[in-house]
Amino acid sequence: MSATSGSSSSTTKASRLERLQSHMLTSLLSLQSVPPPNRLPVAKNKEPLSLPTTTRNFRGFVQKSGPVFAIQDAVHETLMWDHPARTLCVMGIWGIIALYPNLLVPLPTFLLSLLLLQTYHARYPTLAANEDDKVKPADVVDHAVKHPTSTGHGKPRPPIVPEPPNEGSIKYYENLRDIQNMMKMITDIYDLLSPFAIHLNWSTPDHTLRIFQSLLLVTLALFLISPYLPYRLILLVAGEGALIANHPWVQPTISQLSTRFFSPSRREGRALRSSQRKMMAQMHEWMRMDSLPDEVWERGWRDIEVYENERHSDDAATARAADRHGLGHAGKWSGHALRFGERKPWTRGADGFADATGEELGEGYTLDVSRRIAMSLPTGWKWVEGDEWRIDFVGRWTSAAAGGVELDVDEEGWLYTDADWHNPAGYAYGHEGQPSAPPKIEHEDDEAEDDEKAEVATIMSSKGGKKSGTSGTRCAETRRRRWLRRAMRVVGDEDLPAQRV
């Protein structure tokens, strides 16, 4: 008797404690307090937070959210081509609606008619489905005459009535799983979009101001061209494109094409990036030329060029010397690695030894950038104010090194050659992650074996991942690039014609 009374007392205390906690939480988070001035009227009428209400609503949501997730699964299966026939049917329907949008008006009633057909067949099964009913055609006619309001399709089944799943059933836990995944999806979408808030919250006023100005211009442009847009064609292409893009064959194809056209080890990818660099460099050059003062155009100007030469080496002394001068590729590419008697780090002539007049440059192997700035100009010329040294990313000068064929340069403007400054290429062939040969030999290898592995260097030594051997091996050990700066004519000198490049 005492045990029973003790158990009843503990249950009563737990119930009271639960009610007390619920009451305290309701009091703390109640929205009945004075709302702030910007509180919306709808928010004022919201029901206050309550644990019993939350429990009841969540239980009902789990039980009755099944149709929502059924529609979600159907859309996902259609987009992912899980049922190709259904996806093709949706593509056909979308194409008809996109071309004839007036069909959207009867579409809701048509869908309801389809729903009624489905529920009808569930309520009144066909004769073929009833194995016990073997009715002759004469019996059907007789039944139709005597009972004109009856369907004559056999025994009717109970009507379809939505029945929420009970707690603990498999369907209940399936809905609970879908709710869990939906919450994760909302969290992922939020995390995906939150980094873009920095562009809209004026944390960097200049950047956000440019976005705001661009949006105003785009809005104005869309307002002007909106009457002339082919909306039917846009809807058709957008809808069909979304379905085609999710086809199981499309993604692997796009991946292969991306690898071929954007991989640095593929010839097509290098050509595409080189074309983009040349286009951007040419646009920047036109912009700089447009900003030149009128005086420069009236007097005439020309580009003064110097060449920067480097050699690849992993020698420790070379690495320390390059590091002292603040070079970005310490221990890899450096002007300190140039051999005695060959090209100097900075030269005027494309041959690496002399300038255009045949006069060799001063002595020394200095790598100071001021060497370019301190260059003496011919009589009657001076530097254009505000125009600094710039790298030639177009690479028209490479035609002289390749026998009249213009080659590409890399993203930093370098043209790579072998140990004897021959076999030029726009990439460091023979090094890790790069093709194993210059363009001419590489094309021959591609004809023999069209395989990506044939283009990537597979024989790497312990020194920087390059092939060892004599100067005839396929390995880039030297490189050079051209720097340009504009000079303006200050006096009339017929011996120095102006060049407008």
UniProtKB/TrEMBL annotation:
UniProt key word Glycosyltransferase: no
Domain TECPR1-like DysF, residue spans: 48-313, 374-425
Predominant localisation class: membrane
Stretch list, region Disordered: 145-166, 426-480
Regions that span the bilayer: 88-117, 211-229
Record membrane topology: Multi-pass membrane protein
Pfam families reported for this sequence: Pex24p
UniProt GO cellular component terms: peroxisomal membrane
InterPro entries membership: Peroxisomal_Membrane_PEX28-32, TECPR1-like_DysF
Residues annotated as signal peptide: none
Superkingdom as given in the UniProt entry: Eukaryota
Entry keywords, A to Z: Membrane, Transmembrane, Transmembrane helix
PANTHER family: PEROXISOMAL MEMBRANE PROTEIN PEX29
Protein name from the UniProt record: TECPR1-like DysF domain-containing protein
Species of the source: Jaminaea rosea
